[in-house]
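Weekly puzzle thread! Below is a chain. First person to post its structure in C-alpha cell form gets bragging rights.
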Amino acid sequence: MTTKPEQKLIFAVPKGRILREVAPLLTACDILPEAEFMDEDSRKLRFTTNHPELDIIRVRAFDVATFVAYGGAQLGVVGSDAVEEFNYTELYSPLDLGIGTCRLSVAMPEADLKAEDPSKWSHIRVATKYPSLTARHFAKRGVQAECIKLNGAMEIAPALGLVRRIVDLVSTGSTLKANNLVEVEKILDVSSRLIVNRSAFKTRPEETGRWIEAFRQAVYPQS
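Winning reply:
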C-alpha cells in the first residue's frame, strides 16, 4: 500500500553541526535517509527514508521548532535554547538526546568587568539571537533589558559600540576570548531535544510514540 504524501510523518532536523551528531542516532533508530541527505551542498530540503511513511526535512535550527509547532512537521530535533526562546505551547519535548551540549550565557568586555558589578545592573542593552528568553531572564532579576536581535557575529558588537553586553551560546569560550569578552553569567545549559507536535501526538499516538520509544532506546539502551 502506498502512503499518501499528506499521511506521511515529517521529521525535521537542523542543518550544520547538530546534523552530524544526529546522524548516528538516526541510524540507531533504523532511519536511513536517501544518500543525498548528508550532502551539505545539496539544495534539496526533503528526503525519503527506508520507511515509506516517514520523510525527513533539513532546515535551519531555529526553524525546526516552528515547523513542528505549526504542524509542518510532526517530530524534530532542536536545541533547548530554541524551545525556550519560542515557548510554543504546541511543542512536546519528551526526550533529551544528550547531543549539541553547550550553554547560553551573558558576556561582556573584560575591561568593563573591572569597573562594574553585573549583579547591580538595573538596565542594560544586549545583543542576542534570543530576545524573548533574554528579556525573561533579566526580568526575573528585576533588570530591564533592551534586546537588539542579531543572528550572528554577536561577539563583535561590543567592539563596534553597538552594545556592551551580549547573550550567546558558549561551548569552549575561545570565541569570547578572541574578542576580549568574558562570560559573567550562565542563563541555561543547552542540549538537543526530541520534539513532537502535541496535536500529532494525540491524533497519531502509535506512529509518534513508536519513534519516541526508538529514540529513547537509542539514547538510553538500558532503560
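Puzzle host: Confirmed. Bonus trivia for everyone else. The two ends are 34 Å apart (CA to CA).
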